[in-house]
């Protein structure tokens, strides 16, 4: 005689039942490739279709299945939907631990050269878009940026944090990524013996140069280029600063990787940037590529780069935006 329990399915799925959709969704080579390219980057449906040479409808189907299984999550950027790996994975839950194990497994496999080249092409497209904005609005940069946040609202807390740390830390060298008009360079010039200001916009560097002349800042080198240029030169810094830069760069996660590679042991990365928001007008009016970031995103990128999160400060603005000021440290073990 068959028991009633064997005949009637339980209303509560077993752990095996909850794992099945994850393995089913990940049991496809293309979907595993998608997870690999989303290790640090966030891509839209069209970009992923471009990466894998497939129709948008087919890519959307794969993304829907993976999203339902919890392998990735959507992120709205204005009118477009981008996809990323989930930010919140509980180390105690079996489902989340399984998803993390899948991520760890695919991350051990290097991306093929053709995919790396396509990813770089997309980043270049994003960079061109950002550079075109700054070339067009260089004369109105401060005015455009202050539509979101006045310079002092984030520069002052960053300066205070650096001032507090400099009482205990001896910082000889500093790097500012994306100095804009150079408004923060006087702070760094005073805090460090030597400062490098790096920007890929010639128009903005011209403005930063004028600031250095007007403020008589004699310990600053202004360099046109990207972090790869400094890595190739073998530069090393005690302090790296990026004020309201991440939402303008093609791959924000790479800033953390490059900053870590450019920092001496015991060095500090200080970031100020927008928290995630839904005001998509910022893309057209301020040249933003990204509508801010979840704090967990920055922490995850830093952890992936071997950096340890330090102090955090969140500043609410009247226009609905919120700025986060974060510090991340490079310990000896991270090298």
Automatic annotation (TrEMBL):
CDD domains per record: AdoMet_MTases, HTH_ARSR
Family matches, as Pfam families: HTH_20 (PF12840), Methyltransf_23 (PF13489)
Protein name: Metalloregulator ArsR/SmtB family transcription factor
Domain HTH arsR-type: 11-106
Database matches in Gene3D superfamilies: Vaccinia Virus protein VP39, Winged helix-like DNA-binding domain superfamily/Winged helix DNA-binding domain
An annotated Gene Ontology molecular function: DNA-binding transcription factor activity
Species lineage: Bacteria, Pseudomonadati, Pseudomonadota, Gammaproteobacteria, Pseudomonadales
Chain coiled-coil ranges: none
Organism: Marinobacter confluentis
